[in-house]
Structures are given as structure tokens and as C-alpha cells.
Amino acid sequence: MSTEDPGTRGARGDDDRTVDLSDDFVVLPEQTSDDTDHGWGERADGNDDWLLSQRPPHWD
Predict the structure, then answer these.
(1) DSSP, res 54
(2) Degrees, nearest 5: CA angle 56-59-60
(3) Please, what's the b/e burial string for 21-42 (b: 16 or more CB within 10 A of its CB; e: otherwise)?
(4) What is the per-residue DSSP string for 6-38?
(5) One pLDDT digit (tens) per residue for the chain, 60 residues
(6) Whole-prediction pTM
(7) Are 37 and 44 in contact (CB under 8 A)?
(8) Cα radius of gyration (the chain)
(9) Of 27, 29, 26, 47, nearest to 37 (Cα)?
(10) DSSP three-state, residue 53
């Protein structure tokens, strides 16, 4: 007479389990839609050059 549970026959433990650690799984996006120019209702062209030219003198 066997004392082994028939439901666990041939089952492997967690130590034998293969875990896929690839970086392809995305949990959260890098950037949300409201963090974009389009999300703010603006055009896609940037104004970074203008903003950098408008820096106050005490920032240099």
C-alpha cells in the first residue's frame, strides 16, 4: 500500500521548475499616453531649442 497522494504523483517541486526571466515581459509602459505631446493636445514637434534659449541668466 502506497502513502503517496495520487494527485502529486510525478509532480515536480519549485526547485525543478523552469522560470523564464526574459526582459520582453512589459508590466507597465515606459510612457503613458498623457505624458506625450499628443496627450496634452500639442503638436508632435518639439520646442526644446526655444526652451533652452529662454533659460534665465542665473542658470548658466
Answers:
(1) T
(2) 105
(3) eeeeeeeeeeeeeeeeeeeeee
(4) GGGTTPPPGGG------TT--SS-SS-GGGSTG
(5) 555 555 555 566 777 888 777 767 777 888 888 888 888 888 777 788 888 899 888 887
(6) 0.30
(7) yes
(8) 28
(9) 47
(10) helix
